[in-house]
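Tokens as discussed.
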């Protein structure tokens, strides 16, 4: 059975931020893709995680826990977030191997239902190692989406120029025209 279309306005961000973006605002009302297992199936499919991870209540609960830990990590203090992110990371590890193609690393989980949550938490570690200052919240009024700024000079402000960026520019234009 094909999975439903992903309804979120921003997809394709690194896994940690894509998990945070399972909550978004539409016309002032917060939407939650992880409200049930149907949305979980959409999120897993959008991130290529459907093979080894069923869209069941355990995976859903673990992802919600990881999402909250990541929300606190992005918006709170590192001291508050560290034990929450570490609690998710405690459910997996990286297994180093030597294969015919050379060295390889693969995640390993005692309980596979923690796989997607662990991968999202691990993705966050990679982002803060690479460029923590480029993890951003959208500047659009009322927008709660997050993105990793890959612009050359690191000045991206909106989740999407077509949505929040355009609204901000239109609002500024309207304000200027009312002054004249």
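Sequence:
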């Amino acid at each position: 059975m094909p999975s439903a279309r992903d309804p979120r306005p921003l997809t394709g961000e690194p896994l940690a931020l894509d998990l945070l973006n399972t909550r978004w605002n539409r016309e002032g009302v917060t939407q939650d893709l992880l409200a049930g297992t149907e949305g979980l199936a959409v999120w897993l499919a959008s991130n290529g995680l459907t093979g080894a991870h069923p869209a069941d209540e355990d995976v859903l609960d673990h992802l919600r826990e990881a999402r909250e830990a990541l929300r606190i990590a992005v918006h709170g203090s590192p001291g508050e977030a560290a034990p929450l992110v570490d609690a998710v990371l405690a459910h997996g590890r990286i297994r180093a191997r030597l294969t015919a193609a050379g060295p390889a690393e693969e995640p390993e989980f005692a309980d596979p239902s923690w796989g997607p949550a662990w991968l999202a938490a691990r993705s966050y570690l990679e982002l803060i190692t690479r460029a923590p200052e480029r993890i951003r919240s959208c500047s659009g009024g009322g927008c709660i989406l997050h993105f990793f700024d890959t612009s050359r000079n690191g000045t991206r402000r909106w989740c999407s120029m077509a949505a929040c960026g355009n609204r901000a520019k239109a609002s500024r234009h309207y304000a200027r025209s009312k002054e004249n």
